[in-house]
Amino acid sequence: MEWNELFAGAWTPQPQRQPIDAAGDAGPWTALAHNTGRPFTDDSVPSGTQQVAYQVRAARGTRQSGWSEPGILRFVANAAADAAPLRIAA
């Protein structure tokens, strides 16, 4: 996942992840550690996850943007390794 240039300067990205299992049941949205670097690597996806949704918003002090539209990443045997990075914007 990569942040676009909206996060330049004092804005901090606030990403969230939602795992989706093989039955299509979505788990809760979970806040991920703030990461101002680009690209962002999520190396803590729960085992057994078939899909994962990500959304992000920008924060600056006490101000926050709305959440982005979720980006869905589907795990298919060896296909995800060759895919382009998921890009979402707040």
Question: What would you say this structure looks like, in words?
Answer:
The protein is mainly β and 90 residues long. It has one domain. It has one helix at 79-82; strands at 12-20, 30-31, 51-60, 63-64, 71-74. Strands 1, 2, 3, 4 and 5 form a five-stranded antiparallel beta sheet that branches. β3 (51-60) and β4 (63-64) form a beta hairpin. The longest helix has 4 residues, at 79-82. Residues 1-47 are annotated as: Disordered.
Mean pLDDT: 78
Number of strands: 5
Secondary structure class reads mainly beta
Gyration radius from CA atoms, angstroms: 13 Å
Assembly type: single chain
Count up the helices: 1
For the sheet with most strands, the description reads: 5 strands, antiparallel
Number of domains: 1
Order of helices and strands: EEEEEH
In percent terms, what proportion of residues is strand?
25-35%
Intertermini distance: 13 Å
Helical amount = under 10%
Stretches with pLDDT under 50, minimum 5 residues:
none
Coarse morphology: elongated
Short description, anyone?
This protein has 90 residues and is mainly beta.
Characteristics:
mainly beta
Describe the protein's topology.
Layout: E1 12-20, E2 30-31, E3 51-60, E4 63-64, E5 71-74, H1 79-82
